[in-house]
Each structure stands twice: as structure tokens, then as C-alpha cells.
Amino acid sequence: MSLKPFDIEVDPPSEDLMEIARRELRETPEVRISAVEELRALLKEAKDMHFSEEEEFLLIFLRPCHFYADSALKMMRRIAEFKKSNHPLLHALKPEEEKLAFIEHNVVNVLTNRDQKGRRVLLVNCGAAWDPKAVSSEQLFRVFFLIHLVAQLEPATQINGIVVVLDFDGLSLKQVKALSPSFSRRLITFIQDAMPLRLKEVHILKQPYIFNMVWALFKPFIREKLKSRIFFHGMDMRKLHKHIDPCDLPANYGGDRPPINYGGKEWYPCVYNYIDHINQWNTFGFVPNVL
């Protein structure tokens, strides 16, 4: 099926993709059937939580947990805890509430192509391109959260994972002030404990000296596993190219593709197209009357 540039891939995984899943995630038809049945049984026992028991939904958690059902259940519980702890920020979250942040401010973007390893590449403009007065740090987080809800529906992304590129070009004190300790803790907690996606790499680019103030806020919350996947490149795009092939990068980052001429405005309809999944996700987590 032919995809539009600003759409996601929800078709069943190809044979090549399933071979990667077998090699990296232990996924075989037999393991998948067994893990889905086990996770369903565990969810039935977890009377304080509510999540869908449909197989396609359970795969969102089983794949990043290498098909260990008990690990998937623990992830679901951490997600429930995160939603509870951030209830005012995430309760009944809807794309239309963040539409202006999407379409008028190019803070969060996604490359239309995958990289050489089949990974989705998320771009976050954390420097001069981000005006915290127009898009608060809370809005920035909600936009990021909505994008991750849509990305988790792609089998190819579930299997291959994602890469995040943080562009700090033109970073100044107004952005540093917006990246508060509470925001830093929330974002890192989400990434490490409550995001059911395989985060393979984080690349920090074009960071000025003032970035050290930002890093000092984030560093205390970062565990070794994530720390080992964070790479600092400054203005040297050749260092980035050791991880992402220039053939898959735009000219903005020394790549062979044309400069980026799209952003959240183009991606917003795709996010809104999956409103049913977003609405359903809003109902998942702890059961209110047994909290």
C-alpha cells in the first residue's frame, strides 16, 4: 500500500522485519502466542489496572520487553503510575488542545523517512526555534506524548525503535529557564520508565556552552542505560553521520537529502487521524475506584 509522506505504517511487518524481531526480540509465532496469553492472564489478576487485551495492543508492550510478559506488565504499571502522577498534564489529552503548538511552531518534527536501520527519527528544536512563551514546556511535553502515542502503532517502529535528535542551535537563557528541574525529571522519568518504545539513540547537536546548565539539570535523573545511548556532537555533523547515514539525513544536518521544508503543521493531521487510539489510551491505567 502506498503511504502518504505524513502518515504512519500500520501494515503487518514484512518477512525481513520479522527476522529482525526474531533475532533481537525473541519474536516467533510460538513465543508471541504464549506471551500474549500470559500477559492477558496477568492483566486479569491485576484488578487495579485497566488496559486493552487485544493482541495488537499488547504487542506495543511485549516487543520492547522482548516478549517477557512479566516485564511487559511491570511497564504497564509504570505507565499507570506516570499517568497518575501527571494527571493534570495528561488527563483526557486531545490533539486539538495542542493544535496551535503543532501547526504554528516548529518545535517537534519527525523525518518522513526512516534511517538506515529502519528507525523513526524525531527532531526536537530546543534552541532559538523554540519560544517558551508561545509553547510552554508543558505543551512541549504533551506534543511529544501525542507523537509517541501514534508512533507506538507502527510495527516497524515497535521492532526497530526510534532515534531522537535534539537541536540546541541558538539556545539562550529563556529556553534554559523553561527547562526546569520538574520538567527535566518528568521527561526523563517518561523516557526511562513509561515510554513503550525502543529508544536506541539520543543525539545532541549544535549545543552552545550554556547547554552545560541544561545538562546539569538532566544528568542526575539519567540512569546508565540511557546515558550510554546519548551522544554529543556540537557542530560536527560528521560525528552524527557515524550513527545515521548522511543518505537518510537532510542538508540541515550535513545530509544528502533536501533541507527540511515541513514540520508539525504537516504531521498534525496524521496525529489527529488516530484520535480513537489516543482517546482509548486516555482510559487506560489504574482503575479509579481502587486507587
UniProtKB/TrEMBL annotation:
InterPro entries: CRAL-TRIO_dom, CRAL-TRIO_dom_sf, CRAL/TRIO_N_dom, CRAL/TRIO_N_dom_sf. It holds the Pfam family CRAL_TRIO. Residues 98-261 form the CRAL-TRIO domain. Gene3D superfamilies: Alpha-tocopherol transfer, CRAL-TRIO lipid binding domain, N-terminal domain of phosphatidylinositol transfer protein sec14p. GO terms for molecular function: phosphatidylinositol bisphosphate binding. SUPFAM superfamilies: CRAL/TRIO domain, CRAL/TRIO N-terminal domain. This is CRAL-TRIO domain-containing protein.
